[in-house]
Amino acid sequence: MAEPDYQRQDLRQRDIVNHAILVQESSNTMSAIEYLKSQDIHPDVIERVLLEPQRRRSTLHH
Asked: Where are the alpha helices (DSSP H) in the chain?
């Protein structure tokens, strides 16, 4: 069975996003947003991962 189109493909982006989540938890949301922007993460992804945590992808995907 093929993986869904929304399956994470970019491991570098995954690491950047995971780091931003840690920044958000230890510092604040604006710092995390600025970090993600500086890494050219798409605004839709930034909004989803930082402002809608229930929509984050599981870290258990292979």
From this structure: 11-26, 29-38, 43-51
d(CA 43, CA 30): 13
DSSP strands (E only) in 1-62: none
User: What are 39-54's pLDDT values in tens digits?
Assistant: 999 999 999 999 988 7
Determine which helix (DSSP H) or strand (DSSP E) holds 33, and give its type and residue range. helix 29-38
Burial tier of 49 (Cβ tally within 10 Å: 0-12, 13-18, 19+): buried
61 in Cβ contact with 8 (< 8 Å):
yes
Report helix angle 29-38 to 43-51, nearest 10: 150
| pTM score of the predicted model | 0.74
